[in-house]
């Protein structure tokens, strides 16, 4: 990349935006810092050179769940803006000693990593304890029972009475249809409620003013062993917070995703080439959350575009904050929960911390992932000397829409500009057309290509698991790099999972 051209581009962008009064000085600083980062990180190699990926921050997680083809995690401290990595994650296979069941969690720490570390270790255990009380197929081991028994001195009778009332509250957004998985949603609610109580112990906390906290997104992935009428029970739940997208009910469900989130950390599902946000935004940008805080006597400062709760944070829900009574009154430990059926039209799920979502919206992340998968496939095929017409795969079609590295670089440039004009870009026609194109292509491919998932090369057969592992790892890392290039100022953690599709 020519540094002089990059500097000239920066000067032109800044000059253009200075003339627009709607951009604050903070926005201009973000543009400048983002381009400085690009200049420092730029290298004279192709964006899609697979061998140039740094392995230090990427993790491949092997799970025995037959729904998941590959699962990868990538983290970056974002040392330009953050001194410490405060994100944590956990992947538990055979959760509750159940086959084809796994638990995924991502926790975004604030004011220290202690709360995030504690929650990642203890929230799954609290959740499993609640699950096992209703569903005997979930088993708690002896060691886990001992840990749970040690919590009994903290979670006493009066606290249990309070949580009983809390967990039986009805969701105002609940559909009129019966919800088969309401008990799991209540289980999530109790688990978060108890986890917040345990954080009051202040273990490992060092500050005498304000203890650490975290936001969270968790996902319980279950395989369905028999063909129930899942679509009648859950079809409305998938779209209850996605009014712009629509999908046909699935003909046969293969599994269920039980998701809970608290704060501004999200999970996005790609289904038939469309993006579906399975979480809710609990931050000052949510008008309902703002109203709740103000009506309860809280304060939202005006030193940011959407304000900060008590002048400190954007997240309006979270776990922790026990050292600050005023902040704790406004930031509540109440999760949003949803259960979503998965079938052979579900392609991948992205869980990511705020470091990604503060610079890219959900549609952009899905578009990037689809494009990067296609380009990775092309590069992988060339490297392995595989003829492209012999491939049969399940994510996106290869005909006519194999994106070159230049296409991706162009898309990245557009995303950097969208970031600074996000309100107008979120519903842009260009983004809608991208999604429609990939949706149409994917439907056409899925209807015409139901063959084997194996990758056939002239030198022999290549295990498709190896390919999907590499692709998931690569895409997670490239999403992190894209977030850095777009000007993220937070820790970034991305957990991506690609699904095992039916043959």
Automatic annotation (TrEMBL):
Segments of this protein annotated with the region Disordered: 281-300
Basic and acidic residues bias (residue ranges): 281-293
InterPro entries xref list: PP2C (IPR015655), PPM-type-like_dom_sf (IPR036457), PPM-type_phosphatase-like_dom (IPR001932)
Superkingdom field: Eukaryota
PROSITE patterns: PPM_2
CDD domains: PP2Cc
Domain (PPM-type phosphatase): residue spans on this chain: 70-499
An annotated Gene Ontology molecular function: protein serine/threonine phosphatase activity
Family recorded in the similarity comment: Belongs to the PP2C family.
Full protein name: Protein phosphatase 2C like domain containing 1
Lineage: Eukaryota, Metazoa, Chordata, Craniata, Vertebrata
Gene name tied to this protein: PP2D1
